[in-house]
Design brief:
Helices cover about 65% and strands about 0% of the residues. The protein is mainly α. Helix 4 packs antiparallel against helix 5 and helix 7 crosses helix 9. The relative contact order is 0.16.
């Protein structure tokens, strides 16, 4: 299989170099997976705009989705990144591990996690009971669309890492 390396600032387009500079200022580093997207002259800007778009899901809800999708897809990079981001959004270590196991103590969050897991595992053919519980917990059609868009964001990153196997530049998520 081809060996992928993380491109340096000098190896990407001037447009991506500017994005690297912005990420460096905001985060203190350029995450390896973002740098890998910069192999595409347009990919990084396109992805960051998509990732940063407004959504009806809260940051905690987005992180729960990111974690369960990454768990289902076996993406160590994204499990690690979203464990760290999940902690920054108020989840405890135990809550994060539970989400990766496909459950949450909060009934509303549990319905979201269960549906995200079902959608991801079945490639969009979710269990009817998971859909019913999602709506029973007060989620709306808007939330369903935003959930699917959040899943698609994470699936893209999971697939990119799973294929390239670039180094994880966050503390590794604990095994479950």
């Amino acid at each position: 299989m081809k060996d992928f390396k993380v491109p340096t600032r000098e190896e990407v387009t001037p447009e991506n170099q500017a994005i690297f500079d912005t990420l460096q200022k905001a985060l203190g580093f350029v995450p390896n997976l973002y740098a890998t997207i910069a192999y595409s002259g347009n990919g990084l800007a396109k992805y960051l705009a998509y990732q940063g778009a407004k959504t009806s899901l809260s940051n905690k809800e987005k992180e729960a989705v990111n974690l369960i999708v990454s768990q289902v897809n076996g993406c160590v990079y994204c499990q690690s990144a979203h464990t760290l981001i999940g902690k920054m959004n108020g989840f405890t270590e135990d809550e994060l591990l539970d989400i990766r196991r496909g459950k949450a103590a909060n009934p509303r969050l549990n319905a979201l996690v269960k549906l995200a897991e079902s959608i991801t595992a079945s490639r969009g053919n979710a269990k009817p009971s998971a859909v019913e519980e999602f709506f029973a917990q007060g989620f709306t059609n808007e939330n369903l669309v935003d959930l699917i868009l959040q899943i698609s964001d994470k699936v893209a990153m999971n697939y990119l890492h799973n294929l390239t196997q670039i180094p994880v530049d966050f503390p590794l998520a604990p095994a479950i």
